[in-house]
Backbone:
């Protein structure tokens, strides 16, 4: 009896079932809090035609950016994609489609998707290119646009600590989009810095309840810093 | 004389009130954190999920899991909290952030702002800017009054694709402080040594000047 033990021991098992043309929702903000090993394995699997939903698309040689090298991504749904020369090339040549989405709308699309809410109204983007073609409705005299939620065939999530039941805790601002991504995958895979026994995490301090999580794998992380800025001690 | 970036930031910081929750955009707005008056406390919100952003870390404090919305390494202050992106934008979209400061390419007399997209140039994305301008109670735009070619950025109607409509209340440029109301810019203050005529000449949108316009004061 496996019960609620969701731990898998290989990346192949963690991503079993992922195939061409699927939608993947990924946690992370820039290179902070990204499931590094899962992304690397998606590259090894060679699946293509992917739609990837993530705030950003990594950099050329790290994070989701590595999936651009073999042209595995067909469409990117993101709020900001500026850090990536390959991305620019493939966008300009028409190989890659991008749907730029306001950051809060993107987070809410994932949250709503995971919560069974098909669409919501928001003032964000009204009167801008983002609102073009979308239903507008007025509430209390203010116009709002309708945005549809997002779910994925897979969600890939990076946790600090996960217990074997899939309960997750994130560390510092590596939390970002990970909790929403976790709720919005048909299959949610968590790559954790540390896997602990049930009961080791304070139940009231869990960020992502295990009910959303299907598979947990122990990862190893480089944790690359995208923009290292420091101050001298005196200042 | 036109203000430097630091002087614009200094003037922005004078808009902060004790107890304000403030979101600062990339560039000049971020500099305003260095000039918060000593007798007040403000708390900085970073939309990647941090309320109570502190200064950049020392080499010893450096942590890959602590970044700001510009993806730079940061620290948190005592009493900070960290949360997910949906929570962060609930604060922003729900109108809980008191002041947002951001840059712009153009603003107009209807309070519209264009800050994210220049047609024909590669578009990198709006990040959180559209959420911020739709949500904050009080939005301050910082920018130079005119572009490199001397063309005004304060227009009757923005020409570039918009970031938000009818949302800008205050503009602080290298030449002036203005408010936006009733379909016009209203000149509130001039940069030291800058004449009303120069500001009028560099403001393409309808500008209302009433009485003597004072020079900006810089408290230390």
Residues:
């Amino acid at each position: 009896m496996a019960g609620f033990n969701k731990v898998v021991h290989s990346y192949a098992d963690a991503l079993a079932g992922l195939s061409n043309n699927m939608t993947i929702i990924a946690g992370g903000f820039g290179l902070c809090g990204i499931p590094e090993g899962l992304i690397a394995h998606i590259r090894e699997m060679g699946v293509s035609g992917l739609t990837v939903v993530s705030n950003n698309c990594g950099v050329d040689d790290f994070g989701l950016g590595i999936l651009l090298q073999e042209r595995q991504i067909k469409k990117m749904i993101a709020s900001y994609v500026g850090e990536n020369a390959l991305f620019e090339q493939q966008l300009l040549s028409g190989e890659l489609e991008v749907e730029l989405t306001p950051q809060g709308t993107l987070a809410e699309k994932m949250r709503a998707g995971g919560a069974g809410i098909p669409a919501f109204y928001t003032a964000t983007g009204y009167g801008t290119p983002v609102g073009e073609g979308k239903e507008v409705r007025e509430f209390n005299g203010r116009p709002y646009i309708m945005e549809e939620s997002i779910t994925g065939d897979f969600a890939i999530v990076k946790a600090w600590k996960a217990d074997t039941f899939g309960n997750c805790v994130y560390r510092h601002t590596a939390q970002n989009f990970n909790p929403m991504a976790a709720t919005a995958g048909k299959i949610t895979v968590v790559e954790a810095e540390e896997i602990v026994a049930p009961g080791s995490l304070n139940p009231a301090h869990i960020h992502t309840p295990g009910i959303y999580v299907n598979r947990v794998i122990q990862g190893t992380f480089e944790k690359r810093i995208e923009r290292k800025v420091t101050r001298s001690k005196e200042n | 004389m036109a203000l430097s970036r630091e002087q614009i930031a200094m003037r922005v910081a004078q808009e902060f009130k004790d107890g304000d929750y403030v979101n600062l955009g990339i560039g000049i707005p971020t500099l305003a954190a260095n000039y918060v008056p000593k007798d007040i406390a403000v708390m900085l919100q970073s939309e990647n999920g941090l309320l109570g952003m502190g200064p950049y870390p020392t080499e010893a404090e450096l942590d890959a899991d602590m970044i700001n919305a510009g993806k730079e390494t940061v620290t948190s202050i005592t009493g900070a909290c960290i949360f997910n992106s949906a929570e962060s934008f609930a604060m922003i979209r729900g109108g809980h952030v008191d002041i947002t400061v951001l840059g712009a390419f153009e603003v107009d007399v209807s309070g519209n702002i264009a800050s994210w997209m220049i047609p024909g140039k590669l578009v990198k994305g709006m990040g959180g800017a559209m959420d911020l301008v739709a949500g904050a109670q009080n939005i301050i735009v910082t920018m130079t009054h005119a572009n490199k070619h001397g063309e005004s950025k304060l227009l009757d109607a923005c020409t570039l694709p918009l970031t938000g409509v009818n949302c800008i209340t205050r503009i602080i440029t290298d030449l002036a402080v203005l408010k936006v109301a009733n379909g016009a810019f209203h000149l509130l203050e001039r940069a030291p040594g800058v004449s009303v005529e120069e500001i009028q000449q560099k403001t393409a949108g309808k500008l209302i000047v009433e009485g003597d316009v004072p020079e900006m004061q810089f408290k230390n």
In short: The CA atoms of residues 178 and 215 of chain B lie 12 Å apart. The radius of gyration of chain B is 17 Å. Chain B has a mean pLDDT of 95. Helices of chain B lie at 5-13, 28-31, 85-93, 129-135, 196-201.
